[in-house]
Each structure stands twice: as C-alpha cells, then as structure tokens.
C-alpha cells in the first residue's frame, strides 16, 4: 500500500526547517542544519513505499504553531503526531513531551521517570533520534546543568533554550556538537 507523506519548508527569521506529516500526524521536523535530503531519507526508512508530496496547506497548522512558538506566543503544542520508533524510543519521546516550557531536566531524570535509572545512555540515544524536535522538546534535556549533544548543534539548542527563557546551564558541551 502506498503511503503519502506531505512535506513543506518552514522559515522563521534565519531558521529554515522541513516538516513532514502523514494523514495520522506530524512525523518529522528537520533541524536548521539538516537538508531536504535528510528528511527524505528519514521518510524512506520509516514508511513503506512512500510518496513525498509538497503541500504547504496540509502542513499549515503545524507551521502556524511553530511560528507562534518562535514569536513567544505558544508554550504548548497541540498537534497530532505519527511517532515512528521502537517502543523504548516512543516512551522516551512521550516523557520528553511532558517537560514543561522553560524547564530543563537531565537524561537521568528521564530514565527515572521510565522506572529505569540505568537507562541514562539509552535515553540519550533515543533523545538524539527524536524525529520531531522542538515539538517534542529534546532541547530541554541537558547534562547536569551543562549543554550536551544535540543533533542540530549546540548553537540551535541554545537558541531554543533562550527562546524559552532558560539560561541556567554551562555552555561547555561535547565538541562534536559545537557547530
């Protein structure tokens, strides 16, 4: 069965993202340093025989909420999601969705919420594979008051944290994510 995945480019100031959604809901947000090809590859890995269709109108409600977020007019996203991951990844992403706007927590905190305190590294890995950043706020997860890895680079993680008024962290992060 063919699966249609709709996509659209989103721009706000100097930030450009690609959004993708199925009829079930938003399934992918490419971070500012990720290309259309990155999104396209993700879609082809997670859908069976997909057809990508550009549609600003299909993704308008998602884009509108992102614009409101970037304008500091929205703190809680109200969107349908089509989560594609392992059961553990989905459980982590659901916990990330419970982190309130303007609050950070650690990977260990998430592992505790999942009743698995030894899963801190696995939580970090699942966090890094979050296909819907910003909406599922993986940027709100930091090391012990220190910025750590972020698929979009620490500069964008810091941008998202500052947008939410979060300033209590050390900017020293893993060098691999300093782009």
UniProtKB/TrEMBL annotation:
InterPro entries linked: MethylDNA_cys_MeTrfase_AS (IPR001497), MethylDNA_cys_MeTrfase_DNA-bd (IPR014048), MethylDNA_cys_MeTrfase_DNAb (IPR036217), MethylG_MeTrfase_N (IPR008332), MGMT_N_sf (IPR036631), WH-like_DNA-bd_sf (IPR036388)
Record has DNA repair as a keyword: yes
Domain of life where this protein originates: Bacteria
Pfam families for this protein: DNA_binding_1 (PF01035), Methyltransf_1N (PF02870)
GO biological process, alphabetically ordered: methylation
GO molecular function: methyltransferase activity
Family matches, as CDD domains: ATase
Catalytic activity as recorded in UniProt: a 4-O-methyl-thymidine in DNA + L-cysteinyl-[protein] = a thymidine in DNA + S-methyl-L-cysteinyl-[protein]; a 6-O-methyl-2'-deoxyguanosine in DNA + L-cysteinyl-[protein] = S-methyl-L-cysteinyl-[protein] + a 2'-deoxyguanosine in DNA
Name the record gives this protein: Methylated-DNA--protein-cysteine methyltransferase, inducible
Protein species of origin: Lederbergia ruris
Lineage summary: Bacteria, Bacillati, Bacillota, Bacilli, Bacillales
């Amino acid at each position: 069965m063919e699966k249609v995945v709709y996509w659209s480019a989103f721009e706000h100031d100097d930030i450009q993202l690609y959004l993708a959604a199925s009829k079930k809901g938003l399934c992918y947000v490419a971070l500012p340093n990720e290309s259309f090809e990155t999104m396209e590859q993700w879609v082809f890995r997670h859908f069976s025989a997909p057809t990508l269709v550009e549609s600003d109108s299909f993704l308008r409600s998602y884009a509108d909420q992102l614009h409101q977020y970037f304008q500091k007019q929205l703190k809680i996203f109200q969107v349908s999601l089509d989560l594609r991951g392992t059961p553990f990844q989905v459980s982590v992403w659901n916990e990330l969705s419970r982190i309130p706007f303007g609050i950070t927590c650690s990977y260990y905190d998430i592992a505790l919420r999942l009743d698995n305190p030894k899963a801190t590294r696995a939580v970090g890995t699942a966090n890094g594979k979050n296909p819907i950043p910003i909406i599922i706020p993986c940027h709100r997860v930091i090391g012990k008051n220190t910025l750590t890895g972020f698929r979009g680079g620490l500069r964008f993680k810091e941008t998202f944290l500052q947008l939410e008024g979060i300033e209590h962290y050390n900017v020293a992060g893993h060098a691999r994510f300093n782009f």
